[in-house]
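It would be a great kindness if you could assist me with a short task in structural biology. The matter concerns a single protein, recorded as an amino acid sequence and a row of C-alpha cells. Kindly check, if you would, that the fold set down in the C-alpha cells agrees with what the sequence suggests. Thank you for your consideration; the sequence and its C-alpha cells are set out here:
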Amino acid sequence: MKPPEIGRALDGLALGLALAGGAVLVLLVGLVCISAAGNAVLNIARADWLAGLAPALSQRVIGSGVGPLKAGYELIEIGLAVAVFAFLPWAGRRGAHAVVDIATARLPLRARRALDRIWLALLALVLALVAWRMGSGLLGKLRAGDTTFLLGIPLWWAYAACLPSAWVAAACAAWGALRGRAE
C-alpha cells in the first residue's frame, strides 16, 4: 500500500468509527429520554393530587411498571465508553486533540512540527499500550464470565467494542508521527 492510500484508509476507518460512535450517542440520548419520561409519568401517578382525583388511574399507572428504565445506567456506561473510543481516531486524524502551546507558540514552524511528531509518537505508544491492556482485560473478563450487575451483560462485550477503536487511534497517531499532521 502506498503512503497516500494508507492515509485514506485510516481516514475511512476513523470516519466509520466516528459515525458509529455518533449513532451510539443518539441511541443513548433516546434511552435517557425514554427513562426520564417514564420517571416523570411515574412521579405524576404517585402525586397526591392524582390519587385524590383519579385513584384508579393512579394505581393502574403505578401497577403497569411505567417508570425509569431499570439499569439504564449500565447501558449508558458501556455506550459512552464505546462512543469515546470511537471518536479517538477521528480526533487524531483531524488534529483535534487538546493542545497546550503556551511554551511552543513562539518556536519556529519547523520546531513546532518536530515537537508535534514527537508528541504524536508518544500518543501512539500510549494508545498502543491502552489497546494492548484492553485486549488483556477483554480476555480476563471473557475467562471470568463477568457481567453487569442488573442486566447481566457480559463485560467483555464492552472491551470488544472499544478495542478496534483503540488500535485504529494508535495507528492514526503513529501515521501522524511518521507523515506529519497534514499529508
